[in-house]
Amino acid sequence: MKICVLVKEVPDAAVEKRIDPSTGRMDRSGERNLNPYDTHAIEAAMQLREGGALQVDEIVAVTMGPESAVRALHKAVSLGADRSLHLSDGSLAGSDVAATGYALAKALERESPDLVLLGQQSDDGECYTIGAVVADHLRMPSLTQVVKLEVDGDALRLERQAEYGYDTVRVKLPAVISVGDAINEPRYPSLKAIMGAKKKPLEMVSAVDVGIDASLVGADGSRVHCGEFKEPPAKAAGQVFEDENTDETVAKIVDWLVERKLI
Amino acid sequence: MSDVLVYVLHYDGAFNKNSLGAISEGAARAAEVGGACDAVVVGAGASLGDDLCRSLGRYGARRVFRAEGPEGLAQPVVDVMDRVISEHGHRYAIFGGGLLGFEIGAGLAARRRAGVTMEVTAVRAQDGELVADRPILGDTKISVSRYRGELGIIIGRINAFEVREVGGDQAEVVDLSVEYSPWSMQAEMVTRGEQRGADIDIEGADVLVAGGRGLGNAEGFQMAEQLAGAFGGNAAVAATRAVVDAGWYPYAAQIGQTGKTVSPKLYLAAGISGAIQHKVGMQSSENIVAINKDPNAPIFEFSDLGVVGDLNKILPKLTEAIRTRKAG
Ligand SMILES: Cc1cc2nc3c(=O)[nH]c(=O)nc-3n(C[C@H](O)[C@H](O)[C@H](O)COP(=O)(O)OP(=O)(O)OC[C@H]3O[C@@H](n4cnc5c(N)ncnc54)[C@H](O)[C@@H]3O)c2cc1C
In what order do the strands lie in the sheet with A142-152? Predict the structure, then answer.
């Protein structure tokens, strides 16, 4: 079977995020890296392959994004993917969640995967719904925020936390599954894998190549327009100090609590 | 005419509070744009009796579309809402905060080529349309969503919509028989709502000592328990999803999006980064103290007292100091 893992390039967590005032979009320039949540999805694919309960023939990393996004694909390959597919097209810029999910689904259709894995959220857009969009377009069942994944015959037995506690759900393949960060501890790539990543096959495709309807993507094809950025109501900033001498620190905390009659 | 459709989640014979809030919000906003609010419920027939469904009228629902189907899964609900909207032409769909709402809203956006906004904190009527406020960039900015096309989907942040009783128990119940998509039937609930770990009660506590991944391991929670013990009386220990998923602490103590919402007099967060999904469950606490070794941790943005330091050094001494003070 074939597993496709959706990955994304995001600004490095250490870089301050901001909105570009000229375009009203997230400023995605600066230091960039593979979305840390996606490494759990790659690891889940690797464990399925190594677990042996399913015959995994191929793991393909798939991304949509500008040219620079190849770095995320290289990272994904260094973590275990066999090859990658890069959907890159100027017409896709400014796509909202629904349009992005549609475009990714079109790219995935070309691969006809038996399983699509992705991370629980993207580190930059604070969005955890792309899997559900992709799944509906692919006409596959889907579950998000999965923290345990086991093979159960022709299906997966999945656990996740929902509104009322932990749910266990059996999902028949093919399926789209987003995994939570508690599902595994991603491995570190070996130096050899990092060096070899650029040599693994990488295919670049355009919107036309995968049959994307241009009227459904990009800023014009998106059905939600986000703009007019406002400041949230200001909250009085709290007091923050560094612990230099722990006895003094503790005394300060205790005084603060006593002042507020909390002890 | 701009009608609003709201999905109402239920479990164990009761409706979800966030869903009821979404009806209240949907009814109030629909009225401002010349429409009304309807509800969708999906479940085993026996769990959704006539009286229970009619009671949604209390929060402002005009009609309740009831379909027999699997509970706790998103895609069957997408099928039902898709059918209702294609027949009745609702202009907006609103979901109360919760995991299922995120999944259903996103699936519905794909199905009906609609725009979707999640983590919405406020909905407003403007020029005959609904617009949605969504905090972004770690809640430092609010972006305003406007919708194009036939359907706009609004997924609320947890606790964003207040439950308001505005009517009587007289919503009209409309039964639907829906043919589910094959892929919706490919998922099957095996067990639902399992409570992992001890059944501890934290909702009534005045002081909560909350621990996150920074506690290092399950044993690290002893430090939190000792500190709570030092406060004595009505103090308890709470946790983040990260540590509950890791099995370090019981689910019953989890605060946040898929856990509890609390507002104690004191919330002392140790080794917690302050992710939005955690913040939404504790931000209305009267006093928030945070101990974290990372000066850039988001929790410092919304704490009243922040200490940048190693909790392994601070917690034991703080416990000692509070004990001494109480004894003296
Ligand atoms: C749909 C969805 C629902 C979610 N629901 C919830 C929910 O209900 N509740 C919830 O909590 N989360 C929820 N999450 C997860 C949430 O996004 C965060 O991943 C989680 O809250 C992080 O937990 P944490 O703060 O314990 O861990 P981390 O984010 O890993 O933070 C650990 C912190 O500890 C600090 N630290 C480490 N060592 C020390 C030390 N020695 N001394 C002091 N500080 C130290 C670090 O600096 C860091 O800031 C949800 C996520 C999604 C996508």
Answer: A202-205, A83-87, A58-64, A2-6, A115-119, A175-179, A142-152, A155-162, A165-172, B187-194
B160 and B279 part of one domain: no
Q: Are residues B176 and B283 in the same domain?
A: no
The region, left, alpha or beta by phi > 0 then psi within -120 to 50, assigned to residue B128 is left
Residue B117 lies in a domain: yes
Q: What is the pLDDT of residues A87-110, one digit of tens each?
A: 999 999 999 999 999 999 999 999
Specify whether the CB–CB gap between B256 and B243 falls below 8 A. Answer: no
**Chain A contacts of B245, Cβ < 8 Å?**
147, 161, 180, 182
Q: Are residue B222 and residue B84 in the same domain, yes or no?
A: no
Question: ipTM score here?
Answer: 0.94
Residue-range definition of the domain harbouring residue B276: 207-327
Omega of the bond leading into A174 within 30 degrees of 0 (cis): yes
Q: Which amino acid is present at B132?
A: A
Interface test with A, best of B103, B144, B293 (most A CBs within 10 A): B103
DSSP strand E in chain A: where? 2-6, 9-11, 32-34, 58-64, 83-87, 115-119, 142-152, 155-162, 165-172, 175-179, 202-205, 224-230, 239-242
Q: Which of A128, A136, A223 sits opposite B148 (nearest CB)?
A: A223
Residue nearest to atom 38 of ligand 1 (CA): B214
> What SS3 class is residue A12?
coil
Is residue B285 one of the residues assigned to a domain?
yes
CB-CB contact of B18 with B156 (8 Å): yes
Report whether CATH 3.40.50.300 matches the domain A2-221: no
Judge if B138 and B223 occupy the same domain: no
- Residues B42-78 have pLDDT tens digits of 999 889 999 999 999 999 999 999 999 999 999 999 9
